[in-house]
Each structure stands twice: as structure tokens, then as C-alpha cells.
Design brief:
CATH architecture of the largest domain: Sandwich
Distance between the termini: 42 Å
Order of helices and strands: EEEEEHEEEEEEEHEHHHHH
CATH topology of the largest domain: Immunoglobulin-like
CATH class of the largest domain: Mainly Beta
Strand content: 25-35%
Number of helices: 7
Largest sheet: 5 strands, antiparallel
Helix content: 25-40%
Radius of gyration: 24 Å
Shape: elongated
Number of domains: 2
Mean pLDDT: 87
Number of strands: 13
């Protein structure tokens, strides 16, 4: 296993002891799994873990003075939204072994795809009085660790908002609207936005329960929205002449997302054939797409 070589002294791995991340749920906490199959963008995440740092050993092995202030920090990154941010920071200025309870609260609207959690022990302030080989700059990483969790689910996997359509240009009686903007190279999370009309109580309630549908009507509504969103996305993709199997889109781009959706819905068909069928027989294309999304089927 390779190890990064830093341009300054760093402590041994065992100076920091970490417990696994835990996911906070309604009735307590559970170990963070590798994937969350029922996650959706209305579901915020609260994660916790315990970390123990032997501060004396860290300073000694790094050649730092006893009064050196360190910091334990977490940073999160979500591939689906291309967003990242600080999760938790704790300054460490005391001596001995320090136990820190980390807690990270993440809004679901900022997430998506692969959620990466980096935990690091860093130098909190610039030092000029250490040994020549000691870390000096604030933010110098002394120890780090990375965990990840795949966010996935049956609900539409893009940002959404519940608004009053009466204040928009959309018809007051419409239940939802999928907005697509940008080109195929744009980031998926910045190109898609599902708007739900808060005046349509049935649809709004279905999305309120999207992470765990409680009623049969919730499942029917979510299935209908998924089918309509899939139709809009596929039609948007087919309207671009450069959308093809040979296209090489960046990971988490709109083009890559649309290619993945096409492969899922039409695994044994070419883009050219489906594009022609949409143009020549739109009614057949609509029925094919309806069958592909398995509308109203309950898994």
C-alpha cells in the first residue's frame, strides 16, 4: 500500500484512533453503510464518530513545541452535486489524549452521488519556532482518513423544490415540472431541477414521504413523476445530434447521466434506432418508454 510522503515530519498512524462513522436515525444510531438505498434529496444526513488523539505524541513526533495548537477537522464532498464544505472543526490546545465527538449535519439538497468524508488532523496556526523539518504552515496535514457512502434511491436523483406554481409562469394546476438547462457537458446537479407544486397536496405529500413511501398513492405519484422525468430527459438527450454511444462525457456530467439512463431503459437498442422511432412513431416511442420505466409497478 502506497503512502503519501510529506515535505515535513508527520506522526505515526496510531497517534489517532477513530471509530466508524454512525448514521443518526429516528430511533438512535446505526453504523454508516456503504450505500443508502432509500436516500433522496429531501433526506438530510446527520453523521457522528468518536476520535481520540494523542496530542503529546503528535507534537513530539512532528518536532513541534508543547503549546502548538492543532485542529481536528472534517470536510465533505458530494460527486453528484459537485459541492463540498466543512463538516466539523475542533481546536486542540491541551495535552495528553483528547477524545472528540465529531458531528456532521448535511442538507440533502447539497448531496448526491458518492459522498466522501475526509477527517484530518492539521496545524491550526502558523509556527516559526519548530525544528527545521517540522510543519510550519497553518493547515499542514499531519494525519488524514477518508470514508465514503453511495447515495442512491428510487426517488428522482436530482435537486427539487416545493413551490407555489401560482407565483410562476407554470400552469396553476400542474403538479410538477422538470427543468433542464445547460449543455451535455454541464454538471448534472446544476442542470436539473424538479419543481413540485405545493398546491397539489397529493404530489407534495408523496415527495414528503419519498424516502419511505407510506401510502399506495405515494408510490403511484412517485412512479408517475419518475416516468415523466425519464421521458423528458430521454427526449432532451435525443434532441442533441452529438448524443451517441461514442460520446465521452465527464463523470457526473449531464451527458453521462443521460447515457446511463438511456442504457438502463434501452439496454439492447442503439441511440440511432430509438431516435428514429421517436421521430417516425412518437406514439410507439411513448409506449416503449412507459414499458421501460415499469410505470406503476411496485417493487
Amino acid at each position: 500500500m502506497s503512502r503519501r510522503v510529506l515535505p515535513y515530519r508527520s506522526p505515526s498512524e496510531d497517534v489517532v484512533a477513530v471509530e466508524p462513522w454512525r448514521l443518526v436515525v429516528d430511533d438512535g444510531e446505526v453504523p454508516l453503510p456503504e450505500a443508502l438505498p432509500h436516500w433522496d434529496y429531501r433526506m438530510d444526513l446527520v453523521l457522528r464518530r468518536t476520535v481520540r488523539v494523542d496530542l503529546d505524541r503528535v507534537r513530539t513526533q512532528c518536532g513541534l513545541p508543547e503549546e502548538t495548537v492543532l485542529m481536528l477537522a472534517t470536510v465533505w464532498t458530494a460527486s453528484g452535486s459537485n459541492l463540498s464544505g466543512p463538516g466539523h472543526r475542533t481546536r486542540l490546545s491541551d495535552r495528553g489524549v483528547r477524545t472528540v465527538e465529531l458531528e456532521v449535519r448535511l442538507p440533502g439538497a447539497d448531496l448526491g452521488g458518492l459522498l466522501v468524508l475526509d477527517t484530518a488532523l492539521v496545524l491550526a496556526e502558523r509556527r516559526s519556532d519548530g525544528r527545521p523539518s517540522s510543519p510550519r504552515r497553518a493547515g499542514s496535514v499531519l494525519w488524514s482518513e477518508r470514508e465514503s457512502v453511495r447515495l442512491q434511491g428510487d426517488a428522482p436523483q436530482f435537486p427539487m423544490a416545493v413551490i407555489d406554481f401560482a407565483h410562476t409562469s407554470f400552469p396553476d394546476g400542474a403538479a410538477w415540472h422538470l427543468q433542464i438547462s445547460g449543455g451535455l457537458e454541464s454538471a448534472t446537479m446544476g442542470s436539473l431541477l424538479l419543481l413540485v407544486n405545493e398546491q397539489n397536496k397529493v404530489t407534495a405529500a408523496a415527495f414528503e414521504n419519498a424516502h419511505k413511501p407510506r401510502r399506495a398513492v405515494d408510490q403511484v405519484v412517485l412512479s408517475a413523476v419518475y416516468a415523466d422525468a425519464a421521458r423528458i430527459m430521454i427526449e432532451y438527450a435525443l434532441s442533441h445530434d452529438d448524443f451517441s454511444e461514442e460520446s465521452d462525457y465527464a463523470e457526473d456530467s449531464l451527458g453521462a447521466t443521460l447515457l446511463s439512463l438511456f442504457d438502463q431503459l434501452f439496454p439492447d437498442q442503439s441511440i440511432t434506432d430509438v431516435r428514429l422511432r421517436r421521430l417516425q412513431s412518437p406514439a410507439i416511442f411513448a409506449s416503449d418508454l412507459q414499458a421501460a420505466v415499469k410505470i406503476f409497478e411496485v417493487s
